[in-house]
Amino acid sequence: MAKGNTVRIAVLPGDGIGQEVTAAALSVLEPLAKRHGLGLSTETLPAGAFHFRDAGEAFPEESFRRAQAADANLLGAMGWPGIRYPDGTEIAPQLDLRFRLGLYAGVRPVRAIPGVPVALADPRARAMDFVILRESTEGLFHSRGRGTVTDDMAEETLRITRATTEKLSRFAFRLAERRAERLGRRGRVTLVDKANVFRAFAFMRAVFDGVAAEFPGVDSAHHYVDAMALDMLRRPWEFDVLPTENMFGDILSDLGAGLVGGMGFSPSADIGDDHAVFQPAHGTAPDIAGKGLANPTATVLSAAMMLDWLASRGAGQPFADAASELERAVDAAFAAGLRTPDIGGADGTEAAARAIREGIGA
Ligand code: ATP
């Protein structure tokens, strides 16, 4: 990506609150881009369950092609109860994107935002700031669409490869190095596995250990996934970067979201070697869709991750500065009293977006 060129963002709002939170995030991005002189262009692409219902296709090939050609993708949420493929499976173009673009690194930060209630009473919980790194192209999800079912049994197969584990592990250690610099302390990468029971995880651990040796400046450790579920409640403030298998990461990242205010506060990035998709960790929330109640924070923070990633890909320092300012604006808005309905407040989607916009340039 050449510095100074216009960066092209493909926007896939999707279904339900995906539409609402994406619109809110774009309303924040626009003044931010202006203030930092970012050359950004956006293009909105159709995909999702309602598009499937109306046009017969969940993810038109043209949308995929444009998403693939864009510099980055910002996605809302996709899927809807009652709208399914003929075989009964959910409509999830976001999973197709992950697999087709090889987005192996699912980055799920778990950070306590000042002013937002956390689930734990221990005062140290206010210092929670760790990242679940969910491998997103293999593991148990490798079996998606490939499982076999007979009258008497069903079977799905988990896959762990050396190539992807090495890439995920390197990604984890590099992320820990960057976080160590920003947070002013030594980085620590903890692989979350089940190596005591499954050979696939013993293999994953051996590959991880090989990569760990390349990064003597970062501590490395392992933790069994069941113990991690416990320790994410007992002492989550002690963790830093947690790479893990796809299904484990799926589950632990929802637990992480629950620790810091819920799904509306949990951003995510799915990153590969050449492409990336940024989206809130939540789904389409049919129960609140269309009511203006959705919390856009997760999407706004995902947009900040997108700007930071673009900066790391050569878009230039103003993108990194804009990312930091956006995160600060979110923190400042909640610290000043913004309270969205999901944490018992009355500030809906637009009020939240407005409060964050007001923090830009403040
Ligand atoms: P998926 O399977 O796609 O993850 P889901 O229906 O299981 O979707 P979500 O849509 O993520 O789960 O959300 C579960 C519930 O959390 C919603 O029904 C909604 O009440 C709440 N929720 C999720 N996201 C938000 C948000 N941004 N703002 C407010 N509440 C939210």
List the helices and strands and how they pair.
Layout: E1 7-14, H1 17-36, E2 40-44, H2 49-55, H3 61-69, E3 72-77, H4 93-100, E4 105-111, E5 129-135, E6 148-149, E7 154-155, H5 162-183, E8 188-193, H6 199-212, E9 219-224, H7 225-234, E10 241-244, H8 246-259, E11 267-271, E12 276-280, H9 297-315, H10 317-335, H11 349-359
Parallel strand pairs: 1-2, 1-3, 3-12, 5-10, 8-9, 8-10
Antiparallel strand pairs: 4-5, 4-11, 6-7, 11-12
Helix pairs in contact: 1-9, 1-11, 5-6, 7-8, 9-10, 10-11
Bound molecules: adenosine-5'-triphosphate (ATP).
Residues 17, 21, 79, 263-264, 282-285, 287-288, 294-295, 298, 342 line the site of adenosine-5'-triphosphate.
InterPro entries: ICDH/IPMDH (IPR050501), IsoCit/isopropylmalate_DH_CS (IPR019818), IsoPropMal-DH-like_dom (IPR024084)
Pfam families: Iso_dh
Protein name: Isocitrate/isopropylmalate dehydrogenase family protein
Explain the overall architecture.
The protein has two domains: 1-106 and 268-362, Isopropylmalate Dehydrogenase (3-Layer(aba) Sandwich); 118-260, Isopropylmalate Dehydrogenase. Helices cover 42% and strands 17% of the residues. It has helices at 17-36, 49-55, 61-69, 93-100, 162-183, 199-212, 225-234, 246-259, 297-315, 317-335, 349-359; strands at residues 7-14, 40-44, 72-77, 105-111, 129-135, 148-149, 154-155, 188-193, 219-224, 241-244, 267-271, 276-280. The chain has a ten-stranded mixed sheet, sandwiched between helices. A hairpin with a 4-residue loop joins strand 6 (148-149) and strand 7. Helix 5 (162-183) packs across helix 6 and helix 7 runs parallel beside helix 8. The model has no long low-confidence stretch (mean pLDDT 96). Residues 17, 21, 79, 263-264, 282-285, 287-288, 294-295, 298, 342 line the site of adenosine-5'-triphosphate.
